[in-house]
């Protein structure tokens, strides 16, 4: 049910924008280009204010993108998983450098020690 709500929210968001603002979207040709595209769409699908911490938003957007790939029957390959891991290490590292006080437990594995 939540996925259907996300899709409706994305559709409503896109309908409100003039067609010239949507721009041209290149067709993803590889698993990594699809993952990156879905990751960016995921920010809109999930919403920009759902999570208080940016690193937490990034985590859930990546999970959403990878889940969408699997729903489409495209298994994320090694490059996609590596991009997810590197992106999360960067996001968590940035949060730590900025002095995050309460890193969500799920993000602890991305903290560089």
List the helices and strands and how they pair.
Layout: H1 2-16, H2 19-22, H3 31-46, H4 54-71, H5 78-97
What labels describe this entry?
113 residues; mainly alpha; 5 helices
- Beta fraction of the residues? under 5%
Helical segment count: 5
| Biggest β-sheet description | none
Average pLDDT taken over every residue: 86
Percent of residues in helical segments?
Answer: 55-70%
Structural class: mainly alpha
Compressed to H and E, one letter per element, the order equals HHHHH
Poorly predicted runs are none
> Span from first to last CA?
39 Å
Rough shape? globular
Write down how many β-strands occur, each being a DSSP E stretch of 2 or more residues.
0
The tally of structural domains comes to: 1
Structure write-up:
- The N and C termini lie far apart (39 Å).
- Helix 3 crosses helix 4 and helix 4 (54-71) runs antiparallel to helix 5 (78-97).
- This protein has helices at residues 2-16, 19-22, 31-46, 54-71, 78-97.
- It is 65% helix and 0% strand.
- It has one domain (2-110).
- The chain is globular and about 40 Å long.
- It has five helices and no strands.
- With 113 residues, it is an all-alpha fold.
Summarize the structure.
Helices cover 65% and strands 0% of the residues. The protein is mainly α.
């Amino acid at each position: 049910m939540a996925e259907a709500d996300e899709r409706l929210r994305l559709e409503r968001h896109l309908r409100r924008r003039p067609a010239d603002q949507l721009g041209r979207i290149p067709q993803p040709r590889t698993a990594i280009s699809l993952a990156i595209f879905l990751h960016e769409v995921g920010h809109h699908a999930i919403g920009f204010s759902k999570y208080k911490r940016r690193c937490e938003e990034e985590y859930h957007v990546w999970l959403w993108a990878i889940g969408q790939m699997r729903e489409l029957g495209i298994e994320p390959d090694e490059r996609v998983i590596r991009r997810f891991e590197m992106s999360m290490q960067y996001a968590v590292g940035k949060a730590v450098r900025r002095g995050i006080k309460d890193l969500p437990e799920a993000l602890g594995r991305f903290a560089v020690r």
